[in-house]
Amino acid sequence: MYNQPSPLEVQVLTRRFRLPNSHKIETYLANDGYKAVEKALGMTQDEIINEVKASGLRGRGGAGFPTGMKWSFVPRTSPKPKYIMVNADESEPGTCKDRLLMEFDPHQLIEGIIIAGLAIGAQQGYIYIRGEFRYLIEHMDRAIAEAYQRGFLGSNIFGRGVTFNLATHSGAGAYECGEESALLESFEGKRGNPRIRPPFPAVAGAYQCPTILNNVETYCAVPSIILGGAQYFAGLGSPKNGGTRLFCLSGHVNKPGVYELPMGFNLMRMINEVGGGIRGGKKLKAVIPGGSSCPVLKADECDLAMDFDSVAAAKSMLGSGGVIVMDEDTCMVKAALRIMKFYAHESCGWCIPCREGTAWLKKLLQRFHDGMGTKSDIVLIGDLSKNMLGRTFCPLGDAAAMPTIAFVEKFREEFEAHLDGKPCPYEKSSRLVAA
Amino acid sequence: MTFSPELEARFERFLAKYPADRKRSALIPMLIYGQDEVGSITDEFVEEVAKRVGVTPLEVREVAGFYSMLHYKPMGKYHVQVCTNISCLLTGGEELYERACHKLGLGHKQVSADGRISLEEVECMGACSWAPAVQINYDFYHDVTPEQLDKLLDGLKAGKEPEQISEVPKVNC
């Protein structure tokens, strides 16, 4: 692990991370490994899906859709082959947990994938790993080879006459491919443009066949659910938000790191007690609670339970678990600009409101930060953002618009402080952000 | 076009991963692994990959142009990537990038005259809790200080391999 654990952690998915050779199959087998899949082999498809439904597990990629329900949408009678796809294209700014799940406990992921395969009768799975994680592609390949060697993958898994094969798949650098339908396009060897839905991947996913597509952390939770039972897993979290979550604390905290905490853990406690408070004794200004696409929270909004529903009630999102903490010296205009620069770079260009909107917003925010903004630009930034909302095939347009709207609404005075040629009050010397 | 036996074997494995009538799925993995050996997405490489996965060269170019890790001109032997996205920005990533620009005399996606070092300002690389982060080729460096960056870049400029710069260890397994 790259950071010290916190005594407040509830380690379920990460419980093997600090064992010596935690990534080896022997370590996994000596610590409950592959017991859940053996149990699942004795269950019907409905029993597995119902267990996942009852656990309250919700998608860890960002949207928080109930996992068991997603699995139940796969048509049973389809004559087509079915696929399990794993989204390991971790690229939401602020998020660095799937890396650890693959690095320190790859067999937990493999076991979760096999159980998902049993749940829908799939015989093939693929792990789509972002290209930058080359070492993890090779790492997962070695773990998959170990599982084949033991007969846990292949044409007769666990000697039960069931077939399940698994392989990794490399991306090549594109945030958009973390979006489910763009990921499928990319997997098929195409540009990562999103697909129009419906049909959803459960009906027409990889190669237009029924497909389950979930985040790495979602699959990693499945063995604990099957082995410990739905009630155990649900009881770890808050109502309708089963289990724990790997929160990635970053930014101006004393102890940044990835911490596994119960769903519903209080955000202020996370910052102060888990993260050791703000660096240099500074004051908290703002937090982005779930990766860069989530609307920013002001310091006084952070007494908040970190589960999907509570954060949504606070008009933001729990997202992918990337908790980005900003102190009192952070320029909110610059933060908004850097985030927009990212979305402008990553917009796939398929939908005009997103392609044009992100490019124009980047220019406007850049001009603003350079001190050349006008008061009407503040309104224009809000208008442009609102014109993107809900007008694109995939959520990237919303992901760019929502945080921008929040930055402008919640920190309008900071935008006004940049007006009329005034230099950024937070920067020692005025400089341009590299275009 | 000929590839090393290792790359040929890898291409074989890639093509075997997918259903027989879905060879196109191997396209992006072939491009990125192939680029490491070929140096960049050259015309000859495009045509060879197109033939092997059963699409036209134009379709390969259409795809390759989409992905930020695929380059039409060769990057340096050591491709230094500095993240300046939000978590790295908050912890000094932008200063690291500027420092690298000055030290190397290079800008975004520029390559040194001897072809040894290139620089890129990159988007989030998934090391946010250990920011600021740098990647050299595929190796991660976490919590990089300006002094460590200097050591890395000075070492590379002096002809060392990244592994020989022991003061700044890479982190991945």
Largest sheet of chain B: 5 strands, mixed
By DSSP, the count of extended strands of chain B is: 5
What is the string of helix and strand elements of chain A?
A: HHHHEHHEHEEHEHHEEEHEEEHEHHHHH
Which residues of chain B form runs of ≥5 with pLDDT under 50?
Answer: none
Superfamily (CATH H level) name of the largest domain in chain A: NADH-ubiquinone oxidoreductase 51kDa subunit
What fold name goes in the CATH topology slot of the largest domain in chain A? Answer: Rossmann fold
Largest interchain contact: A-B, 63 and 50 residues
For the CA atoms, what is the radius of gyration of chain A?
Answer: 22 Å
Strand order, largest beta sheet of chain A: 3-4-2-1-5
Distance between the termini of chain A: 35 Å
Main sheet attributes: strand count, strand direction, barrel closure of chain A? 5 strands, mixed
CATH class group of the largest domain in chain B = Alpha Beta
Give the DSSP E fraction of chain B (strand runs of 2 or more residues).
5-15%
CATH class bucket of the largest domain in chain A: Alpha Beta
Mean pLDDT of chain A: 95
- State Rg of chain B: 18 Å
Shape of chain B: elongated
- The CATH topology of the largest domain in chain B turns out to be Glutaredoxin
- Low-confidence parts of chain A lasting 5 or more residues at pLDDT below 50? 429-435
